[in-house]
Amino acid sequence: MSPVELPVLSPAPPAAAAPPLDRAGYAAVARKVKLLSWLSLAWMTVEGAVAITAGILASSIALVGFGLDSVIEGVASLIIIWRFSGERVFSHAAEQRAQKLVAIQFFLLAPYVAVESVRVLIDGEHPSVSVLGIALAIGSLVLMPMLGVAKERLAEEIGSAATKGEGRQNMLCAYLAAALLVGLLGNAVLGAWWLDPAVGLLIAAVAVREGFEAWRGEGCCVASPLDGAMGAGTPCRDDDCCATDLG
To answer: Mean pLDDT over all residues of the chain?
Structure first.
């Protein structure tokens, strides 16, 4: 009896590269990015106001830090709205400027939150229980990943490091909302007051890391009609940013 031969699955052929976007396609994706940034700005306005108010009332540095992060993310959304308005839609110079401005927002947050967190740990200041803060953290934990993933996908389509940076800020907000929720629940249920400033230090550390990554920029190595200078097959450097000077 001859041995039974198992069928061999040949590897799937690599997916065909997406065709380069023309100006109409690029503009259509840019409009989607701008709409998502308007949605983010609306949420961040509410989130920031509620978090800072609740944080002050409960003496919670983690909540105040979370609210400040929301304010900074709102500024990042405004930058992206500016980036994709008018003639700047097809300007590589505007893209580079927006990328740096988004990155700077991360660095604005870290010093205040870090200093205040250390101060609270040293002084042993116990925050109050904040039901409002817990509800806000849950809401952000649900909404922010959806916005962040959508923006990062669109950023890959048009090669916008600035948009990708804003999407990462939304994902950072989701991670921080989860950490904030742990800190607030730990304080409310277990009386673990030190979790609040510990979360504040985490917010500061993650903000610095994300700031450096946003400053370097990622995801721009795709064909796009920025300034009409970029075409398929543009060479890339090790940092995945396009080597062609578009400005």
So the answer is: 76
Confidence (pTM): 0.71
Contacts of residue 197, defined as CB under 8 A and 6 or more positions apart, other chains included, come to: 61, 62, 116, 117, 118, 120, 121
Whether 18 is in a domain gets the answer no
DSSP tally for the chain: helices H, then strands E? 6, 0
* Neighbouring-strand partners of residue 242: 236
Q: How many domains does the chain have?
A: 1
DSSP 190: I
Q: How many CA atoms lie within 13 A of 203 on its CB side?
A: 37
Q: CATH number of the domain at 29, please.
A: 1.20.1510
Q: Judge whether 228 lies within some domain.
A: no
Q: Which residue has the higher pLDDT, 155 or 215?
A: 155
Q: Which residues touch 41 (CB under 8 Å, ≥6 apart)? A: 74, 77, 78, 81
- Binning pLDDT at 50, 70 and 90, where does residue 217 land? low
Instruction: Tell me how far apart the alpha carbons of residues 53 and 109 are, in angstroms, rounded to a whole number.
Output: 17
Query: pLDDT, tens digit, for every residue of 222-240?
Result: 445 565 544 433 433 444 4
Q: Report the pLDDT averaged over residues 118-144.
A: 81
Identify the DSSP state of 206: H
Residue-wise pLDDT tens digits, 178-190? 877 887 788 778 8
Domain hosting residue 194, numbered range: 23-220
